[in-house]
Amino acid sequence: MSSPYGVHALVRRTHEDRVLRALREGGAMSRGEIAEVVGLSRSTMSEITGSLLHRGAIVVVSTDAGYRAGSGRPAERLALDPGSGQFMGVDFGHRRVHVVVADASHEILLSGSTPYENDTPWPTRIERAFTLIDQLSTEARVHFGALQGIGIGVPGPYPTPPTARPRLAGDAVGQPWADGVDAAFIHRFDAPAIVDNNTRLAALAEAISGDHWVEDLLYVRLGDGVGGGLVVGGRLVTGSNGLAGEFGHVTVKPDGKQCRCGKLGCLETVASVPAILATCQSSGVAVSSLDDLQAAVHRSHPVVDQVLRDAAAAVGEVVGRAAMTLNPARIVIGGEITRIAPVIVQQAAATVAYELFPSGVARPPVRAAELGEDAGALGALAALFHNSPLLAGYPETDASDRADTSEGMAHGRAH
């Protein structure tokens, strides 16, 4: 059962988000004007704006004395204070790191990415990220003196005890997992950091990216690997040891190829981008990159079309069975390959429809992800902002236990 304090904190965060959104969309307003827009009482509005003013998220920019009718004390006009803080989202993919930096009003200040090889050691990946951040900072003339927090997404199950993490062949072979990545960023930027699975963070970003939060969402991303994320009952789910949503390691072909996790016939061996390219090549089609694949799709190459449909059917089979258990309101499939080959989402949707219970109840739509390759970095920002009640009860990471973080973000949470 949720504690009264937890419920109050959740409601308060929701009110704060509505106030910040109103100011972001409408510009400077008085407390009374904000109350009318968001539908809150004057007393609640006073409490919420007082807290936001104290934390520096909003500022008083003027009064309405110049145009208000009648006498009385002029009303203060409030606005977002973009300079009050900065927040950084970082997504370490298998072959590329994405960085996004936003201000306190959630406006993006800079973003970019840089590649590396799949077997790049973690210290080198981190240095590549630092070099990218320095480059973006110089180009955008943005400095990080007001950096309030860093959200970091990493591949694989997280958080779990280091001794419990499986070694995945071909993923920074011989190198430790992402242990210490948070400490490296904390040391470099003197700001607190949180760490989580990057695909799970992408699921969070997708769940809150539209006009309405999706409280039950199933997300799968096809890239160099296959990962996923679950939002169930308004909660972002990690599981008991960080493995929730690992759809890529569900067996689809018991006698199939060996996966880097050690099992045979995982979904990742069929539906990841490298697996799809390899299947096309073994079928006599010369494709070695997503650009080659895109060209083949544009030519309506029949062999490539069948390879894509087979991979998508495997995705739909796994996702459809999960949907039978979880009953999501929406299923989202992400990854650059879904933009290149829309047939993947189409075929997956058809397979999901077959797998679901044949009833008159509306079935969840299966859609391509709205966000791009920086979804994980955006989700890391969302985790920092507490931009959604989806984070209520979100398991705490151990980032702050491994490094001396500043007060204001503790036990893996941004306050």
- Sum up the overall morphology in one term: globular
Helical residues, percent: 25-40%
CATH hierarchy class name of the largest domain: Alpha Beta
Contiguous helical run count: 14
Q: Quote the CATH topology of the largest domain.
A: Nucleotidyltransferase, domain 5
The main sheet comes to: 5 strands, mixed
CATH superfamily of the largest domain: ATPase, nucleotide binding domain
List the uncertain runs. 1-5, 161-176, 392-415
Question: What does this protein look like?
Answer:
The chain is 40% helix and 19% strand. With 415 residues, the protein is of the alpha/beta class. It has 3 domains: 4-80, Winged helix-like DNA-binding domain superfamily/Winged helix DNA-binding domain (Arc Repressor Mutant, subunit A, Orthogonal Bundle), CATH 1.10.10; 84-202 and 374-414, Nucleotidyltransferase, domain 5, CATH 3.30.420; 211-368, Nucleotidyltransferase, domain 5, CATH 3.30.420. α1 (4-26) crosses α2 (31-38) and α10 (302-326) crosses α12 (343-355). Residues 1-5, 161-176 and 392-415 have low confidence and may be disordered.
Compact summary:
The chain is an alpha/beta fold and 415 residues long. 40% of the residues lie in helices and 19% in strands.
Features:
single chain; 415 residues; alpha/beta; Arc Repressor Mutant, subunit A; Nucleotidyltransferase, domain 5; five-stranded mixed beta sheet; 14 helices; 15 strands; globular; disordered N terminus
Any chance you could write out the topology, listing elements then pairs?
Blueprint: H1 4-26, E1 29-30, H2 31-38, H3 42-55, E2 58-63, E3 76-80, E4 86-92, E5 96-103, E6 108-115, H4 122-140, E7 147-154, H5 181-189, E8 193-197, H6 198-208, E9 217-222, E10 226-232, E11 235-237, H7 268-271, H8 273-282, H9 290-298, H10 302-326, E12 330-334, H11 336-340, H12 343-355, E13 366-368, H13 375-385, H14 399-402, E14 409-410, E15 413-414
Parallel strand pairs: 4-7, 7-8, 9-12, 12-13
Antiparallel strand pairs: 1-3, 2-3, 4-5, 5-6, 9-10, 10-11, 14-15
Helix pairs in contact: 1-2, 2-3, 6-13, 10-12
